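Page 47, continued from p. 46.
Same chain as before, 271 aa.
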Amino acid sequence: MLAEFYCPRWGSEQLSWEDFCARVKLEGFDGIEVGIANNACQKEMDEIWNLAHKHELKLIAQFYDSANPEFSKHFDIYGAWLEKIKSYPCVKIDSQTGRDIFSFEQNQKLILAASQFTSRTGIEVMHETHRHKCLFAAHIAKDYLQKIPEMKITLDVSHWVCVGESFLEDQTEAIQLAIAHAGHIHARVGYTEGPQVPDPRAEEWQPAVAAHLAWWDGIAERKKQHGETLTITSEFGPYPYMVHLPGSKTPITNQWEVNVYMMQLLKKRYL
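Result:
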């Protein structure tokens, strides 16, 4: 099957865009996933896209700056961000859509705005399963996917594992529905008390890795059957996702190495 692997900008902000893109290309990623702030200026965005093009990297844009609790303002911010991004070539958009505190009807308006954007531009929007956002838990997402069957998601199941304090053994229907609607994967491994295991290479975390691989395999198999490209971002994050040694501000492992490891692991599995 055809699969593409993306490196997150998140956690590498200390690198210049030139150095970041060169390093991503050298590691063997196909592209980058980049969070675009609401206040990002055109000059900054032009630099990002120009350097990605220079290094022959594809780009997934991420909407993440969505904390405003007043729905009318939140809605306007979302619409303005989509308008900002529309002229930039994206493989797709990962959208941390809505808020957990909004009603279904309010979040549905945001999802509809994204759908209308896709109709106008052809750029697909994947709504991420993320804590604090509208799809913050498996049972909540199940309701959205049943009521909005055209909705596509970024499955970051690590968040659901954390929220549900389980590997979702009692939510198989919600998981299968999510697999059926997943258009993108954030390949981070969660555990029952957190959204990111300390190191997916360590023996003690292999049961958690195996659980996530089983879910990702379901998406890969569906994509293969439909002749679609599977896109994956290995999205292990920096502090506070990455635990630090107390008092030292020293991460217990290397984020970059972990994300390269996840990319290589999944390349062997899906290519």
